Amino acid sequence: MKKTLQSSITTWVTALIVLTVGILCIVAQNTEGDVSGNAYDAISIVLGVALIVISTLGLVLNILVLKRSANAITLANGIILALGIFLVVEKTAGELLHILTNYAAYVLSVIGALFVCDAILVFVFGLVKKDDLNTFLVPVLFEAIIGVAALVLGILALPSVNVIDKRLTIFGIILILYSIFLAFASLFQFLGKSASQKKSDAIDAKAEEAKPEDTLEA
Predict the structure, then answer these.
(1) Looking at the predicted structure, is the pLDDT value of residue 55 above 70?
(2) How far is CA 56 from CA 13, 61, 62, 84, 158, in A?
(3) Which one, of 28, 35, 69, 49, lies nearest residue 167 by Cα?
(4) CA distance linking residue 108 with residue 16, whole number of Å
(5) pTM over 0.90
(6) pLDDT in the model for residue 204
(7) Alpha-carbon radius of gyration of the chain
(8) For 141-162, b where at least 16 C-beta lie within 10 A, e where not — what string?
(9) Of 72, 81, 70, nearest in space to 47 by CA
(10) CA–CA distance, 1 with 64 (Å, rounded to integer)
């Protein structure tokens, strides 16, 4: 029960950080002047502090367990710690997010094209092998629809096309939705395990009440 609660709290804190960054992304792109600049700075600080806390805890735990401060795990934590400090000091998370969202447009375009090509290949080879059309038509159509949607969105979001120019806002909305999903999924998991634990405790209590000695005495 205690372990489940600790895991849930960790997930809720993560969801809160993701939610905060998502809101700040929307504010940063849809405001001007000092408000926008402060939002970008806040994104850097939130991400930086989160990375610093996580990496520091990882370093302390690994040093206590491994009795070493220079191995693969601690060095990886050190790199994350350096990134956190860099984001807090330099406040460049906004620029990194712009690069990430621009890159995401290319990722969507390529993945969408791959999905479309795969759907065409599956359909063609299915016809060549004379497979039952009903067994592969629906998956092919579903894959093709996803591929076309991703390809269109990716092309429209390309910096050179720039039809979808609110990429950071869309990214913020995705982060907000993901944080809500993460929080509720963790909540339901916690409530489910709690109910299961209570049921198990009740069964154990009943088993404890019905002791073998009582049966022998009867």
Answers:
(1) yes
(2) 17, 9, 10, 10, 38
(3) 28
(4) 27
(5) no
(6) 58
(7) 26
(8) eebbeebeebbebbbebbeeee
(9) 81
(10) 26
Would you state the pLDDT for residue 66? 77
Instruction: Say if residues 182 and 15 touch (Cβ distance below 8 Å).
Output: yes
Rounded CA gap, 54 and 183, in Å? Answer: 19
69-82 pLDDT, tens digit each: 788 888 998 999 99
Q: Which amino acid is at 126?
A: G
pLDDT exceeds cutoff 90 at 53: yes
Q: From CA 57, how far away is CA 139, in angstroms rounded?
A: 45
Interhelix angle 167-209/2-30, rounded to 10 degrees, is 170
Which band of pLDDT confidence, cut at 50, 70 and 90, is reported for residue 111? very high
Identify the residue whose tokens are 């709290």.
Answer: 9
